[in-house]
Write a structure and sequence with these properties.
flat; 2 domains; mainly alpha
């Protein structure tokens, strides 16, 4: 087993590699967004075949950074020190890991959106040429391509982002979906900080700001604060508006 010093070096190298990959991902994603705009413009000659040439490189890069996030998860307990401050404190490393996970999640979402744009173009322009059974199959079976999932994370079960527009009667169902996502993912066994880090990726920024999430130390505290905020600040306002109408 590596000592703390070796683990900290591994952490720094892995984080640097993650950031280098995202420099390239950002460029590829910029090209993909421009490509999606061209697909939506009937005056442009862009087509799905050309657009899909960007999908493979993006998938490979995102799969790589997903692995880096897994590595950072494993390294964090070995590299962290107990001091409250410092570049290798638990809080500092957790915040960095949180940033990496959020950036990776956004990258996966952007790739999924790009694939949806391509499929929409195909549905419009190839109505008389339905895809043969098994089209889009990836090696090893299955239908694709789709944005890669973080290893050990049941991305397919992830709830939609919780926003202030959620109806009061839908909150219970949302919490049930979150619980299913958590219990079927590896992060549920990696401590409260990991659970909170993933929970934050499922909640909109306006709600996180409203509940002062940085001072919430457990999943229960965060969920309770969200319920209180929605029940006292959001839903009563909606009810008053309905009464006015």
């Amino acid at each position: 087993m590596e000592g703390v010093g070796e683990s900290q070096t591994t952490w720094k190298n892995t984080l640097a590699a993650f950031r280098r990959q995202f420099t390239q991902i950002d460029k590829l994603m910029s090209d993909a967004k421009a490509c999606a705009e061209n697909l939506a413009d009937p005056r442009h000659g862009m087509n799905a075949k050309e657009a899909r040439k960007l999908v493979g490189p993006l998938q490979r890069k995102l799969e790589l950074v997903n692995n880096y996030v897994d590595s950072l998860h494993s390294i964090l307990p070995l590299a962290a020190v107990t001091e409250d401050d410092g570049s290798f404190s638990v809080n500092t490393l957790t915040a960095l890991l949180d940033q990496c996970m959020e950036r990776t999640t956004t990258g996966n979402q952007d790739l999924t959106a790009f694939l949806d744009d391509i499929e929409e173009w195909e549905s419009i322009h190839t109505k008389k040429e339905p895809k043969p059974e098994g089209a889009g199959a990836v090696s090893g079976g299955g239908v694709g391509p789709r944005a890669p999932e973080l290893k050990g994370v049941a991305t397919a079960l992830k709830p939609v982002e919780l926003t202030s527009s959620i109806a009061a009667h839908d909150m219970t169902a949302w919490v049930e979906q979150w619980t299913e996502f958590k219990e079927n993912s590896a992060f549920s066994k990696q401590g409260e900080k990991s659970v909170i880090a993933y929970l934050k990726t499922c909640v909109s920024r306006d709600i996180l700001s409203a509940i002062d999430y940085k001072n919430k130390n457990t999943e229960t505290e965060m969920l309770d604060a969200i319920r209180v905020y929605l029940d006292t600040k959001v839903h009563p306002k909606v009810i008053r508006q309905l009464e006015i109408w």
